[in-house]
Write the structure tokens for this entry.
Amino acid sequence: MKIGDYSTMHNKQKILVTSPTLPPLEDFIGCVKEIYQSKWLTNNGRFHQAFEKALCEFAGMSCCSLFCNGTIALEALLSVTGLKGEVITTPFTFAATATAIVRCGLKPVFVDIDPLTLNLDPAKAEEAITENTAAILPVHVYGNPCQTQALEKLADKYNLSLIYDAAHAFGVEQNGESILKAGSASMVSFHATKVFSSIEGGAIFTEDPELKRKLDLYKNFGISGQASVELIGTNGKMNEFQAAFGLLSLEHLQDNIEKRQILAEKYRSLLKNVQGISLMPEMPGVKHNYAYFPILVDKEKFGKSRDELYEKLKESNIYARKYFYPLITDFAPYKDSSICRSEDLPAAKKAAEKVLCLPVHTELNERDIEMICEAVYWNY
Ligand SMILES: Cc1ncc(COP(=O)(O)O)c(C=O)c1O
């Protein structure tokens, strides 16, 4: 493939940034029939129980509490932990991270990111700690592990809770262990756009059985008995159809990750020498899930801005995603508040202006990746 080849071969079919991986329809229909026969549709049914058990086995962890989605799971975790005050987090994340903090009556304190990994910078986090800090909530952005050891030390030093938004990180391992073991608990999202999905869905993973007990209460209105409510909860339950879908999908996760790895390696080989395009660093000891393929576009060197490249790709029917853009601190509810200004977060601001996630999902093949890269070159 040479630079310029793409001009002769405009792509007719839409290539979307992601597409859900579905378990075989006949398998799902089998589960639906079973649910119909049992008429047990929700409230900790057979599939819910089996899914939690299978997830624990998969992650090598003792406790998992399923939820209707990751956002409610994170709210549940923040709520039952009984935190008060400030929570240090990253502005380079999806809106839900901050939403959960605010909806639990906590104050998000946004600190800058490491410009290489795009994850929360532990040194910046330490600078932001005050007597009001209750917790650190880092995000494994794109499934790339945060500096878990440095963050653990920080949490221990200042006696803070350390809980992770691992929405992107299901299936990721660091030094042979699930990344979900980091901190006291981790939230994962099983939304349809994720590497692993239960349509909508989410979970908290922890090794603390008392935390699991409270989470299970929280998602069922706090009900602890026929005539008792132990805590203020909500309706955050996962239903049997979602649980069955997730349980079946788990059988295909490894295959899904391997397919994505082939695509990611193709992207790396084709883009690594393109001036003005930076790729995420290789992380030794990490087994990735290849959830996303972000690139950073440097206008000076590439000749086009991220936004120009995004539009050009769209003209070729290639739908990349500016993810994460804008920064949380530039969203209306945060922008005019005193919480933090994006001007004080230069690495995050730069990343949000340059980042573009290229399509990656299991319906694509290596030829599609070549075509996308040709489109990038052609615009170059
Ligand atoms: C970083 C991050 N946190 C939280 C969430 C929320 O998860 P859910 O969509 O399952 O509510 C997402 C979803 O995309 C996410 O990307």
Summary: Residues 29 and 263 are 30 Å apart (CA to CA). Residues 69-71, 93-94, 96-97, 139, 165, 167-168, 189, 191, 202 surround pyridoxal-5'-phosphate (CB under 6 Å). The longest strand covers residues 63-67. Residues 1-9 have pLDDT under 50 and may be disordered.
